[in-house]
Amino acid sequence: MVSVSRDRWEAENVEGGLLVCGDCLEWLRNNSVEVHLTFLDPPFRQGKDYRYFDDNQPEDVYWNWLEEVVARVYELTAGGGAIYFMHREKNAEHVLRTLRETGWTLQNLIVWKKRTSAVPYAHGFSKAYQIIAFATKGKKPRVFNRLRVDYPLLPEYKYPRENGIFVTDVWDDIRELTSGYFAGEEAIRDEKGNRVHTQQSPVALLLGSVES
Ligand SMILES: C[S@@+](CC[C@H](N)C(=O)[O-])C[C@H]1O[C@@H](n2cnc3c(N)ncnc32)[C@H](O)[C@@H]1O
After folding, report:
1. pLDDT class of 152 with cuts at 50, 70, 90
2. Going by CA atoms, what residue is nearest to atom 16 of ligand 1?
3. Domain range for 185
4. Percentage of residues in the chain with pLDDT exceeding 70?
5. Which end of the chain has a smaller Cβ tally under 10 Å, C or N?
6. Domain check: are 14 and 92 in the same one?
7. For atom 3 of ligand 1, which residue has the closest CA?
């Protein structure tokens, strides 16, 4: 097992790949690997306490940082490779601009309806989803498996679907790991049962991306 440590990141070989913990931009700037698929779920500039990141930065500084990350990932990505870039719905405009200006081609703007209570919004509709922009290097993905799923039939549908349907760009069957009881079995906890990483995302989101 090879283990490498720097000031702002450390890496070790694990079964099937390299696990890097630390500042992603610092690593991306100093390393070259061929990338085929990226799932980017960055800090959201919400004042959280992160070891490698000031999550209270001014908006322009924050988006410049993300633009550099996304641009470097693009450089490293092989033709036809893909990125899934997740963010808050209110930042959809920034996400799409960042992808466009760094060379990516948008394929889908996926709506992840989180199956949790919506967050009230004083000036409009309550917020119930997050976005995941799926984009490729070049006009189309080198690989895309059009998976079929068999969602439960809605009452207005008369006949069952023989072969299910292709997965759509609305993902509404994956529950966010919220606080407390509803975070369920998947949430990583300490011995007292407290969440260790409150921003942990459901693995099913990654499987939806990787298996497609
Ligand atoms: C919105 S959360 C996403 C969580 C992730 N999907 C998971 O399930 O672990 C943002 C994540 O970015 C990580 N992070 C913060 N600053 C970072 C940096 N400079 N480079 C890489 N990751 C960073 C945080 O530790 C946190 O896990």
Report:
1. confident
2. 53
3. 32-210
4. 95
5. N
6. no
7. 41
E strands along the chain, which residues? Answer: 3-5, 9-14, 17-22, 35-40, 49-50, 53-54, 77-88, 105-113, 129-136, 148-149, 165-166, 170-171
Whether residues 108 and 11 share a domain: the answer is no
Give the CATH number for residue 197.
Answer: 3.40.50.150
- Same domain? For 106 and 62 the reply is yes
Domain count, the chain: 2
Cα–Cα distance for residue pair 197/189, rounded to 1 Å: 8
Q: Give pLDDT, residue 179.
A: 61
Q: 13-17, 154-158, 180-184, 192-196: which range is least confident on average? A: 180-184
40 Cα to the center of ligand 1, angstroms: 9
pTM: 0.93
Q: Give residue 165 CA to ligand 1 midpoint distance, Å.
A: 33
180 alpha carbon to ligand 1 midpoint, in Å? 21
Angle at 134 between CA 129 and CA 139, to 5 degrees: 150
